[in-house]
Amino acid sequence: MHIWDGEFFPTFPLVPGHELAGEVAAVGAEVEGLRAGDRVMVDPTVTCEGCHFCMTQRQNHCLHWNAVGVTRDGGFAEYVRVPAKNCYRFERVSFSEAAFTEPLACVVFGQDRARIALGSQVLVLGAGPIGQLHLQASRANGAAAVTVVDTVESKLELAAKLGAAHTVIADGDLDTKLRKIARWGFDVVIDATGNPRALAQGIAHATPGGRVLVFGVCSPDAKVEVSPFDIYRRDLEIIGSFAIRRTYDRAFQLMENGVIDVKPLIAEKLPIEEIGRALELMRTGKAAMKLQITFDGAA
Question: pLDDT tens digits, residue range 104-146?
């Protein structure tokens, strides 16, 4: 929705769609290792590999950063052109699952940044697709207990099925309920809402020495009031996590081998002709989970 609304990055006209998988229709003359008919998922990030940030392994901050479906035409089309090096072959999963590798790769990078230690207590704010991925990834990283907060009961029910130790409805009594679960605060707090108010509330529940991962995408002009003294006194780390940094293969391995289950996170598959309805469902909050656009009944 941020891309569709032109809030950052895009230059129009643009075909969006940065979470994608498909079948190779043709390859360039110099391409090796790929052929027509291969089923591939696509890392959308296109970097120069020659600037300061690429040379220091921070490709997500490439000075010439581009992304399929963000700054160049993407997957909401029958055909899309992508660099061969960004394609990863797959065989054992569906196109729908393979397309989920992009958000999962972002989550893996965020988890790397958050440094979840064995036995940690983790708080995840937001139980949408990203929050559910962080829940599963936190458990895979060794969290002793993951608490998930949301305003929608059905999303919390899914979180419980996916392994949340505690689920909490976000209401006027949220602070009290969280203090009962973690009296001294949580080792890691992950904001997957993109809501500044939720982020500010989450910071208050980080334990001294804890880490707060700012993962949800707030609007560029959003502000959060934070006390510098509070950060100093409580030894807090506030951590950002932008896009992907060499995490695509690990993300797919987690999914392909069943460590992280993405199938329950796909609410509906729609043909390209219904993309308008899909966007409206997202905008109004009526999408239960992830919506996917498909072509020719691809599964």
Answer: 999 999 999 999 999 999 999 999 999 999 999 999 999 999 9
Residue 245 included in any domain? no
Do 180 and 281 reside in the same domain of the chain?
no
Three-state SS for the chain is: CCCCCCCCCCCCCCCCCCCEEEECCCCCCCCCCCCCCCEEEECCEECCCCCHHHHCCCHHHCCCCEEECCCECCCCCCCCCCCHHHEEECCCCCHHHHHCHHHHHHHHHHHHHHCCCCCCEEEEECCCHHHHHHHHHHHHCCCCEEEEEECCHHHHHHHHHCCCCEEEECCCCHHHHHHHHCCCCEEEEEECCCCHHHHHHHHCCEEEEEEEEECCCCCCCCCCCCCHHHHHHCCCEEEECCCCCCCHHHHHHHHHCCCCCCHHHEEEEEEHHHHHHHHHHHHCCCCCCEEEEECCCCC
- Per-residue pLDDT tens over the stretch 151-202: 999 999 999 999 999 999 999 999 999 999 999 999 999 999 999 999 999 9
pTM: 0.94
Inside any domain, residue 253: no
